[in-house]
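Subject: Sanity check before I submit

Could someone independently write out the structure tokens for this chain? I want to compare against mine line by line before I put it in a report. The sequence has 156 residues.
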Amino acid sequence: MHTTKNSLPLKTRDSMVRLLNDRLADALDLYHQSKQAHWNVKGPQFQMLHGLFDDLASHALEHADDLAERAVALGGVAEGRVAPVAARTSMPAYPGDAATGAAHLAAIAAGLASFGAKVRDAIDVAAKDGDAGTSDLFTGISRAVDKDLWMVEAHG
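---
Independent answer below. Compare away.
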């Protein structure tokens, strides 16, 4: 941990940095899954889904940036390197054979639902540990992910 004048106890900051990095790995995985769908979707809904998946990737990258910056603000290190992220992610694996709009929508919906559930758990963990700022960050991400999931499921 880096030296900071942040008034949260070191133990709290340390546990929050671990939690933030766990969700950072998931957000980066979600970003790559969304780009996988964006690049590979085929079918009559191509144009609409191509744009939707790109928007979702942008949202995931924004979440990743917010999570990483919070970890560093607490005195930690944001872990965004590919190998550690791959080892740390808890996201369901994206199917390599997805091609149709329906297959990509199903896979992206599963990923968003998984990420959303873990973010909601993180809200409670951060609040219980006394870090209202991190809890609030997770609350905002939760609302955004729920909206993205709604948009994806509206196509099904």
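---
OP: Matches mine. For the report I'm noting this point. The mean pLDDT is 96.
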